[in-house]
């Protein structure tokens, strides 16, 4: 299986670091970059061919900031597309959610497989971690414009102290969970 991983926002946070936790000094772009590298490693160990690209340029609208994400995924011939993000809202909101274009299509099955592993892992580390579920988002470019099953994982709320601590302390466990979700999806396809 060919897996395309897109850690959200701009590489090194320039020009867009994504969501921030000013109190702890965490930037979404940095957190998801580290998690993405580990997901790549675990998927390669599982026999997947993986490409990872972090770029501010999603559909070709910002060519000065790197390759277009959607074009790169298409030219790679990816079987699945995974975008990694951290949520932010009001410093009190918490939880994990996984987004897909249409939960009745293959992207929904991929979302379910990854989300199940993420929630199990996050709740193992913090029993109060809210499950915000799987949500359809037809407005997101990386879900709308890709031709392969695609998901966007909002792993946790980086602006919430409790969630942010989980993101940092358990980034390896989170990466393993995402990789297991992809291989669970692969097994379900083969079965």
Shape: globular
| Proportion of helical residues | 40-55%
Instruction: Predict the CATH topology.
Output: Aminopeptidase
H-E string: EEEHEHEEHEHEHH
The name of the CATH superfamily reads Zn-dependent exopeptidases
Overall SS class: alpha/beta
What is the rounded distance between the termini? 14 Å
What number is the mean pLDDT?
96
Strand line-up in the sheet with most strands: 4-1-5-8-6-7
Quantity of strands, as a count: 8
Q: Return residue spans where pLDDT drops below 50 for at least 5 consecutive residues.
A: none
**Whole-number tally of structural domains:** 1
Tell me the Rg in angstroms.
15 Å
Q: Please report the number of helical segments.
A: 6
User: What fraction of residues sit in β-strands?
Assistant: 15-25%
The CATH architecture:
3-Layer(aba) Sandwich
How would you explain this protein's 3D organization?
Helices cover 41% and strands 21% of the residues. By secondary structure, it is of the alpha/beta class. The longest helix is centred in the middle third of the chain and has 20 residues, at 106-125.
């Amino acid at each position: 299986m060919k897996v395309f991983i897109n850690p959200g926002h701009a590489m090194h946070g320039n020009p867009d670091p994504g969501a921030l936790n000013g109190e702890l000094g965490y930037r979404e772009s940095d957190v998801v970059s580290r998690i993405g590298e580990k997901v790549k490693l675990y998927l390669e160990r599982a026999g997947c061919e993986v490409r990872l690209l972090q770029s501010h340029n999603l559909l070709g609208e910002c060519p000065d900031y790197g390759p277009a994400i959607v074009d790169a995924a298409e030219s790679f011939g990816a079987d699945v597309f995974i975008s990694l993000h951290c949520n932010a809202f009001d410093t009190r909101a918490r939880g994990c959610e996984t987004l897909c274009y249409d939960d009745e299509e293959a992207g929904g099955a991929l979302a379910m497989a990854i989300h199940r592993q993420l929630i199990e892992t996050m709740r193992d580390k913090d029993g109060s971690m809210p499950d915000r579920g799987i949500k359809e988002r037809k407005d997101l470019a990386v879900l709308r414009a890709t031709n392969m099953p695609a998901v966007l994982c909002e792993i946790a709320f980086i602006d919430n102290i409790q969630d942010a601590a989980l993101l940092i302390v358990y980034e390896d466990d989170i990466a393993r969970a995402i990789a297991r979700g992809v291989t669970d999806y692969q097994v379900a396809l083969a079965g």
